């Protein structure tokens, strides 16, 4: 057993455990698999779960259902609309999750050599294939590296600013809460950019990312605690959240560039 979190005895990043899904989410996953494979039998190359449901530590009524779809070709506007309609229909029927997210990739992009540290790592270590071709089997295990952290979250300034602008424009409380949760989770996961190249562990949960942030930059401990709370139960004013999000993004950009 490894002495470092998130890695196995040989130093490779741990993959998700091969275990049954939590009973509370099995009906939703069964319907998701059946509906997407029936409606998009040619377009869909593979269907994967990631996040808390895939790991087996989801909270009914609070956690999201995070889904990666690898498509055989770039979808047309009509196909994108049908995918979104399917997502919305599933979300409306299943209150056991707070929302359903589709993360879409195209097969040619997923297998491109330049995307090895993003898509290759993602499918190998962060996803569970529940239908179709398991592309994760094509990749060898990865060891922790800042290269992977950059591939996954190097876009954080643009993504966090996008969330900030959407929050400023939104007037719907439910949408605001969803945006706050998503932004808080991206903010925490982006803290992995502060890792040293020689660090051997790999954070998996939001709590582990918050711990990494606090250990790497003690002066940002308040941000770690704030975003960890917001990632589950958003509270406080939207304006305050946006201000903190932008301040954190600027600090992280400066620290991670050093």
UniProtKB/TrEMBL annotation:
The keyword Transport does not apply. SUPFAM superfamilies: Nucleotidyltransferase. Gene3D superfamilies: Beta Polymerase, domain 2 (3.30.460.10). Keywords: Transferase. InterPro entries: NT_sf, Polymerase_NTP_transf_dom. The keyword Transferase applies. CDD domains: NT_KNTase_like. GO terms for molecular function: nucleotidyltransferase activity. It comes from the Bacteria. Residues 30-91 form the Polymerase nucleotidyl transferase domain. This is Putative nucleotidyltransferase. It comes from Pseudomonas chlororaphis.
């Amino acid at each position: 057993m490894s002495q470092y979190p998130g890695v196995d005895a040989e130093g490779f990043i741990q993959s998700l455990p091969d275990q049954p899904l939590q009973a509370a989410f099995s009906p939703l996953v069964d319907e998701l698999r059946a509906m997407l494979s029936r409606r998009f039998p040619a377009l869909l190359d593979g269907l994967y779960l990631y996040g808390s449901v895939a790991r087996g530590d989801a909270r009914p009524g609070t956690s999201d259902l995070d889904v990666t779809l690898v498509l055989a070709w770039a979808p047309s506007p009509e196909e994108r609309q049908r995918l979104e309609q399917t997502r919305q229909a599933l979300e409306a029927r299943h209150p056991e999750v707070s929302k359903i997210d589709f993360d879409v990739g195209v097969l040619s992009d997923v297998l491109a050599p330049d995307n090895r540290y993003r898509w290759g790592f993602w499918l190998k270590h962060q996803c569970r294939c529940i239908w179709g071709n398991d592309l994760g089997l094509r990749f060898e295990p990865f060891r922790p590296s800042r290269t992977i952290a950059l591939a996954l979250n190097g876009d954080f300034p643009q993504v966090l600013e996008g969330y900030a602008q959407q929050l400023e424009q939104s007037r719907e409380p439910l949408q605001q809460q969803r945006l706050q949760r998503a932004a808080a989770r991206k903010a925490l996961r982006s803290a992995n950019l502060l890792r040293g190249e020689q660090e051997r562990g790999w954070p998996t949960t939001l709590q582990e990312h918050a711990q990494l942030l606090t250990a790497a930059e003690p002066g940002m401990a308040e941000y770690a605690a704030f975003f960890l709370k917001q990632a589950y139960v958003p509270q406080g004013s939207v304006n305050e959240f946006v201000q903190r999000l932008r301040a954190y993004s600027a600090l992280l950009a400066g620290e991670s560039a050093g």
